[in-house]
Amino acid sequence: MKSDQYILLEDEFGAHNYKPLDVVIERGEGIWVWDVDGKKYLDCLSAYSAINQGHCNKKIMAAMVEQAKRLTLTSRAFRNDQLGPLYKELCDLTNSHKVLPMNSGAEAVETAIKAVRKWGYQVKGVPENKAEIIVCRNNFHGRTISIISFSTDPVSTTGFGPFTPGFKIVDFGDTAALEDAITDNTVAFMVEPIQGEAGVIIPPEGYLREVRRICTEKGIVLIFDEIQTGLGRTGAMLAEEHEGVEADLTLIGKALSGGFYPVSAVLSNTEVLGVLKPGEHGSTFGGNPLACAIARAALKVLVEDGLIENAREMGTYFLEGLKQIDNPKIKEVRGRGLLIGLEFHDTAGGARQYCEQLKDAGLLCKETHQTIIRFAPPLVITKEEIDWALEKITPILSR
């Protein structure tokens, strides 16, 4: 079938909860993908940073196939030979004490919410059902009812109430607002080190360090949602490393499987995850041997193939190239590592028109919040490939 036939099938039989660009991809390798009509594209989205290691990474694929031949699922009623090694490798790489594996990013966020509430009641002494968690305006942590209960995006919330109570919202980057919002019932502050879905919003220098200080002094749990920013995307294993801080809970997912399988995890100190007892939380598929084998290979590729360093170096190069584009319609170009946002003024007519033109030129990216294009290619990208991308991007974004 041709692209238009696949699109007609989706439109007729699928729920219309996405508005994708009209490209039907059938295969991928490294930074490149091909559509069903044979056209080649440079992927500058990486499935929202899930494919940091590149499409169909051969090392991860080999680990997946090998494990799939041996054992895929036991449930957590039994132990498996991949889970313990994954725990240790994750803890060694991230300086964590405990790991709780799940499947999706939203599940990791829900897990963190449950854990810090229970910690608040059992350890901090918050009255039952009074726990409060502080979050940031313009956050994106997932799509479940509890998570959208603290979203400030009307597209995410309209028509989905009633919502889960127990959350306060403060401005991102404002430590004074955070401090003012903390009460005796506050159990945690959850924040993205860089707000990805909001348009690659980078907080002021020192913000994360000050947040760490406040949370320590006030006796509340600091949660970093690194589902998009973690695992090399910003030029560090975790984005928290740019300010030399450590969260009490860190949430990872997406690139934890290199795009082969849904895998997420809550990384924690012993105190917080230690409150969970058998039967209180879990998942049939969370921590299954296939997921663990894939995650172990995905982590190994990030480290041994130098992808974190490459993200740092190529991100600087790509960012500088984008900043050279001369167009008064462009408001700002910002980023860290290979997570880059290019924002247009409201009068530019929106970012999607540019994404559609770039698609026609052989480069795939996606708009966010109407006026922003996010550029986030796989971390395997080379200088020559960035030059190729800039040759496509510059004339289109100069209009």
Automatic annotation (TrEMBL):
<keyword id="KW-0032">Aminotransferase</keyword>
<comment type="similarity">
    <text>Belongs to the class-III pyridoxal-phosphate-dependent aminotransferase family. OAT subfamily.</text>
</comment>
<comment type="function">
    <text>Catalyzes the interconversion of ornithine to glutamate semialdehyde.</text>
</comment>
<dbReference type="GO" id="GO:0008483">
    <property type="term" value="F:transaminase activity"/>
</dbReference>
<keyword id="KW-0641">Proline biosynthesis</keyword>
<dbReference type="InterPro" id="IPR050103">
    <property type="entry name" value="Class-III_PLP-dep_AT"/>
</dbReference>
<keyword id="KW-0963">Cytoplasm</keyword>
<dbReference type="InterPro" id="IPR015421">
    <property type="entry name" value="PyrdxlP-dep_Trfase_major"/>
</dbReference>
<protein>
    <recommendedName>
        <fullName>Ornithine aminotransferase</fullName>
        <ecNumber>2.6.1.13</ecNumber>
    </recommendedName>
</protein>
<keyword id="KW-0663">Pyridoxal phosphate</keyword>
<dbReference type="InterPro" id="IPR015422">
    <property type="entry name" value="PyrdxlP-dep_Trfase_small"/>
</dbReference>
<keyword id="KW-0808">Transferase</keyword>
<keyword id="KW-0028">Amino-acid biosynthesis</keyword>
<comment type="pathway">
    <text>Amino-acid biosynthesis; L-proline biosynthesis; L-glutamate 5-semialdehyde from L-ornithine: step 1/1.</text>
</comment>
<dbReference type="InterPro" id="IPR005814">
    <property type="entry name" value="Aminotrans_3"/>
</dbReference>
<dbReference type="Pfam" id="PF00202">
    <property type="entry name" value="Aminotran_3"/>
</dbReference>
<dbReference type="InterPro" id="IPR010164">
    <property type="entry name" value="Orn_aminotrans"/>
</dbReference>
<feature type="modified residue" description="N6-(pyridoxal phosphate)lysine">
    <location>
        <position position="254"/>
    </location>
</feature>
<dbReference type="InterPro" id="IPR034757">
    <property type="entry name" value="Ornith_aminotrans_bact"/>
</dbReference>
<dbReference type="InterPro" id="IPR015424">
    <property type="entry name" value="PyrdxlP-dep_Trfase"/>
</dbReference>
<dbReference type="InterPro" id="IPR049704">
    <property type="entry name" value="Aminotrans_3_PPA_site"/>
</dbReference>
